[in-house]
Amino acid sequence: MDEAMKYCMEYIPSSKREIHKQEEKAALDDKTECGYPIDKKGKDYLLPSLQYQQARKWVLSKKYETYLQSFKSRGKSRRVIASSEKEMEYIPWLRKQLEKEKESKFKMLADGPSFIAKSYNSYAINGYVFCTYDSKANSTTQNSGVSMKAFTNFRASAKDKNLVEDEATYYGIIRQIFVLDYHKFKQVVFLCDWVRIEDKRNGCVVDPDTNLVYVNLRRCQRNTNEDDEPFILASEAPQVFYCKDLSRDNWHVILHAPKRLNHDVDVYEDPLVFEAMENSDGLASALMGDIEGVEV
User: Fold this and answer.
1) Which range (6-15, 100-109, 176-185) has the least confidence?
2) Which pLDDT tens digit goes with each residue over 155-201?
């Protein structure tokens, strides 16, 4: 319903839509890193220690990878790090380097966010509307699927003993949406269950004839240790849909979602509607403004 209302607002003459909130342009533009929550108020959420450390590590490593060159063999996005040292060990070092930079964003990231985050059921960003899985349990719509590309370690086959590093696409389901509070700025993250794509038999399979990707949503990675990586920045989350495979329990085929909150898509896909509306004071212009101080 919220998404339909936003779409309809584009057809209301500008003189009649002043009550529409300005920040909603953010999600209509897939080229910006801003967004906004659909359920405006949200709820305060006390992050458990495990989730706090996982989120803190992921945000810091993704935002400022240049600080991690001494602790990673390569400065790339990764979901599995081949290292004998825990990644959390770089944080005390980083904080020491930034002791004198009280107002530095680096320092605030290294210090970590507040343990109190805002939790939301849905968030509009990147031209998509994302929802948590549980919030859509009884709904006919599906907005909880996400994907991301990352470097990880694989075995090329079951017989191989040595790991090979390569880029892979991960598929997941959003369990929770958090806005982390770094006091001077905020950061939006998704907590996800990620399919075990390295399991080529029971987790993720590519059909050789159609190149369609099938995933088993019951075969997800663990999320019990600090070095597990269940989080993703909202800004790095393309949306996917999971279409149920009727021939196998728990298996789904991956469908990449179109950007539904982008003006350019509407212009090219439905030109007749736009032409008809031009006779009535013109189309509603792009919604103005965005949320200040929120990063995704």
Assistant:
1) 6-15
2) 666 666 677 777 889 999 999 999 999 999 999 999 999 999 988 88
Neighbours of 170 (CB within 10 A): 22
- Is 214 within 8 Å of 252 (Cβ atoms)? yes
pTM of the model: 0.72
Non-local (6+) Cβ contacts of 29 within 8 A are 127, 262, 263, 286
pLDDT for residue 32: 45
CA 273 to chain centre: 32
Q: What is the pLDDT of residues 120-132, one digit of tens each?
A: 999 999 999 999 9
CA gap 16, 46 in Å, rounded: 41
Q: At a CB cut-off of 8 Å and minimum separation 6, what does 148 contact?
A: 77, 169, 170, 172, 232, 236, 237, 238
Closest CA to 67 of 103, 112, 109, 114: 109
* Sign (positive or negative) of CA dihedral 265, 287, 120, 47: positive
